[in-house]
Amino acid sequence: MKYVLDSKQMKQVDNFSIKRIGMPSLVLMERAALGVAGLIESKFSEKSKIVCVCGSGNNGADGIAVARILFEKGYDVTILAGVVGTSEGETQLSIAKKSGIKIKKYTRNKIKLNEYNLIIDAIFGIGLLRNIEGNYADLVSAVNDSKAKVVSVDIPSGINSTTGQIMGTAVKADYTVTFGYKKIGLLLYPGADYSGKVKVVDIGFPKTVIRKIAKKAFTFTGDDINLIPKRMKNSNKGMYGKVLVIAGSEYIGGAACLAGMSAYRSGVGLVKVLTHQNNRDAILKAVPEALISTYNSNYGVEQIESIISNELEWASCIIIGPGISKSEIAVTLTKYVIGNTKVPTIIDADALNIMANIIADAKTGANTEAKIETNTEAKIESKIESKIETNIEANIEAKIEAKIEDNTEAKIETNTAAKIEANTEANIEANTEANTEANAETKTETKIETKINKNIFTNEDGVSFILTPHIGEMERISGFDKRTIKSDPIKYASEFVKYFSKTYSENLNIICVMKDARTIVTDSNGCAYINTSGNSGMAKGGSGDVLTGVIAGLISNKMSCFDAACMGVYVHGLAGDESAIKKGQYGMKAGDIIDNICAAMK
């Protein structure tokens, strides 16, 4: 497992190392420069003509140090720099001048890089917060327009180190040498497309510093496959779980086959498929090891609930959604499962869309009842005030007229005040009593309705729901639009899980597997896994069905639900990579991924 950090976290690492531990920033800078120079030495000969393009910050200072080291090793190096804006930069530039390196200043419309065959990009680092414009944008364009190879220092200039987004424009690197820890922006697209081959170099950050950073994102590497529990020699099928696959519908049967097969390939002891009776023969042929339970299209709600109730008691893990459609039966199945499950439940595909509708209806119901309560209270209050005012005015006028004949002004005042008080109290009491019953009834009904709306999920403490949406489904269940989600996928996946847990299911464990070119797995504790396995050949129908089976298989092998979701995505991608080697990305299909799960898990 490798931690990956965002811009804020890397600054914390820097500050801890420099201010708390006492490591001089120039020492860290020198070690960073040695790392970049080392990669260049291994990839490019001394005959290379190199220009190091430096910005005004410490990324530029790193670049100046790299140029000096390469110059000392015999390379033909030129430094192209503008204004130096840090004390470290001034120190590095002073050393470079004394070393005899060629130093040029760049000016607008006079940037010529075609004479060089290697460019070191040290314009902007991980601290970039604004879009690149003006002279710097021209500089980036000149780098990209040249035919030279490009090595970026820490991160390609213009890539947001937290989100991977392009800040106006960005350098497209062939290699990136990053320091201490890989940056999230190097993994997420489009940043990953701009980073080329990424090398992480150790520059001496204390090992203890990573423990000071909260809510770290991480990735897996090849050795992490060993985190999957080993199967015991003295064991039986009952020890490896019973997965209930609720999949397929009257005219869709393949999804059930794919989910069932991949679950078995991932180590499940027993698989049972609950599906429409039309799929029975196809499933028996494709997955003869599976148990089968079926229903008919004419089954009513009570019949469906009776069937699913018995199956839930049997299962130790549930998959619901692949190919179930959005029929009334599918809605009944989904509602019953999410409202009654007591075991880890993976919600995918059609079940996610049905769940989105259930949540939307719950929100609408809660909002409607809240409005009724607010309006009722407002009307009662208004009515009380109106009656009080009317009765006071009527009684004042009557009493004044009665007493004027006796010319007893003092009595008018006394009686008026008394009558005002008496009528005020009487009317308040009368109106309050008249409306209290209706008001109480309205409030009671609203509270009950709100509770029902919020408790659409099982009340069984600790149950895990693993939601596996692709970006389109994520848009529907989260309320965030696609563009917003893609602008910072970790942030919005994490926010969705937190909101979901707080609003609907505080007693549950919610995990989101947001599927994309870089699948993100998040939980309510703020953890985030970024998947780096897999390829574009997996962007085909059925791949998601296979993933649900892999995750269910790992849960059945005693991994925690979050770990199983993360490892399931990783294994799924590895199997996809193996399929691409054998069949090619164009020709591979979901069934090929299943065939290579075994190899991926060895």
TrEMBL record:
<keyword id="KW-0456">Lyase</keyword>
<dbReference type="GO" id="GO:0052855">
    <property type="term" value="F:ADP-dependent NAD(P)H-hydrate dehydratase activity"/>
</dbReference>
<feature type="domain" description="YjeF N-terminal">
    <location>
        <begin position="10"/>
        <end position="211"/>
    </location>
</feature>
<dbReference type="Pfam" id="PF03853">
    <property type="entry name" value="YjeF_N"/>
</dbReference>
<feature type="binding site">
    <location>
        <position position="255"/>
    </location>
    <ligand>
        <name>(6S)-NADPHX</name>
    </ligand>
</feature>
<comment type="function">
    <text>Catalyzes the dehydration of the S-form of NAD(P)HX at the expense of ADP, which is converted to AMP. Together with NAD(P)HX epimerase, which catalyzes the epimerization of the S- and R-forms, the enzyme allows the repair of both epimers of NAD(P)HX, a damaged form of NAD(P)H that is a result of enzymatic or heat-dependent hydration.</text>
</comment>
<feature type="binding site">
    <location>
        <position position="323"/>
    </location>
    <ligand>
        <name>(6S)-NADPHX</name>
    </ligand>
</feature>
<dbReference type="GO" id="GO:0046872">
    <property type="term" value="F:metal ion binding"/>
</dbReference>
<dbReference type="InterPro" id="IPR000631">
    <property type="entry name" value="CARKD"/>
</dbReference>
<dbReference type="InterPro" id="IPR017953">
    <property type="entry name" value="Carbohydrate_kinase_pred_CS"/>
</dbReference>
<comment type="subunit">
    <text>Homotetramer.</text>
</comment>
<dbReference type="GO" id="GO:0110051">
    <property type="term" value="P:metabolite repair"/>
</dbReference>
<keyword id="KW-0067">ATP-binding</keyword>
<comment type="similarity">
    <text>Belongs to the NnrD/CARKD family.</text>
</comment>
<keyword id="KW-0520">NAD</keyword>
<feature type="binding site">
    <location>
        <position position="544"/>
    </location>
    <ligand>
        <name>AMP</name>
    </ligand>
</feature>
<dbReference type="InterPro" id="IPR004443">
    <property type="entry name" value="YjeF_N_dom"/>
</dbReference>
<feature type="binding site">
    <location>
        <position position="470"/>
    </location>
    <ligand>
        <name>(6S)-NADPHX</name>
    </ligand>
</feature>
<keyword id="KW-0547">Nucleotide-binding</keyword>
<dbReference type="InterPro" id="IPR036652">
    <property type="entry name" value="YjeF_N_dom_sf"/>
</dbReference>
<keyword id="KW-0479">Metal-binding</keyword>
<dbReference type="GO" id="GO:0005524">
    <property type="term" value="F:ATP binding"/>
</dbReference>
<feature type="binding site">
    <location>
        <begin position="125"/>
        <end position="131"/>
    </location>
    <ligand>
        <name>(6S)-NADPHX</name>
    </ligand>
</feature>
<feature type="binding site">
    <location>
        <position position="545"/>
    </location>
    <ligand>
        <name>(6S)-NADPHX</name>
    </ligand>
</feature>
<feature type="domain" description="YjeF C-terminal">
    <location>
        <begin position="220"/>
        <end position="602"/>
    </location>
</feature>
<keyword id="KW-0413">Isomerase</keyword>
<feature type="binding site">
    <location>
        <position position="154"/>
    </location>
    <ligand>
        <name>(6S)-NADPHX</name>
    </ligand>
</feature>
<feature type="binding site">
    <location>
        <position position="121"/>
    </location>
    <ligand>
        <name>K(+)</name>
    </ligand>
</feature>
<keyword id="KW-0521">NADP</keyword>
<dbReference type="GO" id="GO:0052856">
    <property type="term" value="F:NAD(P)HX epimerase activity"/>
</dbReference>
<dbReference type="Pfam" id="PF01256">
    <property type="entry name" value="Carb_kinase"/>
</dbReference>
<dbReference type="GO" id="GO:0046496">
    <property type="term" value="P:nicotinamide nucleotide metabolic process"/>
</dbReference>
<feature type="binding site">
    <location>
        <position position="59"/>
    </location>
    <ligand>
        <name>K(+)</name>
    </ligand>
</feature>
<feature type="binding site">
    <location>
        <position position="136"/>
    </location>
    <ligand>
        <name>(6S)-NADPHX</name>
    </ligand>
</feature>
<feature type="binding site">
    <location>
        <begin position="515"/>
        <end position="519"/>
    </location>
    <ligand>
        <name>AMP</name>
    </ligand>
</feature>
<comment type="similarity">
    <text>In the C-terminal section; belongs to the NnrD/CARKD family.</text>
</comment>
<comment type="function">
    <text>Bifunctional enzyme that catalyzes the epimerization of the S- and R-forms of NAD(P)HX and the dehydration of the S-form of NAD(P)HX at the expense of ADP, which is converted to AMP. This allows the repair of both epimers of NAD(P)HX, a damaged form of NAD(P)H that is a result of enzymatic or heat-dependent hydration.</text>
</comment>
<protein>
    <recommendedName>
        <fullName>Multifunctional fusion protein</fullName>
        <ecNumber>4.2.1.136</ecNumber>
        <ecNumber>5.1.99.6</ecNumber>
    </recommendedName>
</protein>
<keyword id="KW-0418">Kinase</keyword>
<feature type="binding site">
    <location>
        <position position="157"/>
    </location>
    <ligand>
        <name>K(+)</name>
    </ligand>
</feature>
<dbReference type="InterPro" id="IPR029056">
    <property type="entry name" value="Ribokinase-like"/>
</dbReference>
<keyword id="KW-0630">Potassium</keyword>
